[in-house]
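Methods: holo model generation. Sequences were used as deposited, without trimming of termini or removal of tags, and paired with ligand SMILES retrieved from the corresponding compound records. Each pair was processed once, and we did not select among multiple samples. The sequence and pyridoxal-5'-phosphate SMILES for this entry were:
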Amino acid sequence: MITQAGLDAMDRDDPLAPFRDEFVLPDGVIYLDGNSLGALPRATPGRLAAVVEREWGTGLIRSWNDAGWIGLPARLGDEIGRLVGAPEGTVIAADSTSVNLFKLLSAALRLRLGRRVIVSEAGNFPTDLYIAEGLAALLGQGHELRTAAAGEVAGALGPDVAVVMLTHVDYRTGAMHDMAAITAAAHAAGALVLWDLAHSAGAVPVDLLGADADFAVGCGYKFLNGGPGAPAFLYVAGRLQEAARYPITGWLGHADPFAFDPGYRAAPGIGGAVVGTPSVLAMAALEVGVDIALRAPMAEVRAKSLRQAALLMDLVAQHCPGTGVEPVTPGQEDRRGSQVSFRHPEAYAVMQALIAQGVIGDFRTPDLMRFGITPLTLRYADLWDVAVAMGGVLASGAWREARFGVRNRVT
Ligand SMILES: *Cc1c(COP(=O)(O)O)cnc(C)c1O
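and the model returned the structure below.
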């Protein structure tokens, strides 16, 4: 039986507790959606003001050199690389996750000419599937997206498969793939692998180099706390960089942009994956979030995340018996990321009722309530309040209020 006193004791012993003060968290809110939009670091407004007023306002165009703006994609990429087991020179911060998927899927297909299949999971995040479909149609050479059921990718491999594209941690259920095992199986079948780390970077240990991954993309506004629409990142294994060719040949991916050469010549290394001018303000905000993540020891983040997720599942069982709420996140620790999802037929309305009480998670169609576990901000004591709120909403039927059934554009 979990008690409030027991949870308070865990908070007192928590080595990550001081990180909570580095974020702005409104009173009366328990935030469990840092996997969708990370919280605001306290240092971000000041950093943004400095970049705007000093670097832009005073430095003007000199800041491309003097403030290092031009090097931001590579510098921030290297910092993010340390969070995902990627050596220097293999990650850049750029564009959005969707655009980076397009760039790297294209590069993968060009490295496997003659193979025309992209394998993914049917339940992958829609943008990943849409980008693959759109690229296949654009190429007009009979490329196709082949989707397998969750966990059955190995059965979809074959001599026609160019690339396997998977999201490491499932955005709905929180189930996590064995990156090294799937990468090895794909390589054995002659295919490349592209990992989407949207729900992994800053949340779970990732070792791209150790897993021998070929390509990866990831998101800046989720567990990296870079702010709404923050730049994303991409990874290209060092051994592929010389051969890789990218489909968007912009001037900042040129070997010598300021030669203003009329012909394109790709920059060496990962530089060719850069397209155009970086969004400096957005990069500055992302760097604040990444700096915090780099200071938080991943072993401690992971241990707390696993413990909090297990406690939340147990507390919901304790406080919501007989309500039809059912966890769908794997119980096995090495099979889950950093979220807990529960199934309930009225998940949308129940979540809206919880949000009205300040317990902010989100809904994923058709019937999931999703709670992101962000160990840098979430207290153990909060988990008690979440389970009590959920039990109350379900027992009282508060979710039946008409306003909780009205669908918002963003769920
Ligand atoms: C959040 C997320 C994205 C987001 O893509 P954007 O281009 O930033 O909108 C992509 N893939 C996955 C798996 C995600 O979870």
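The first helix runs from residue 4 to 12.
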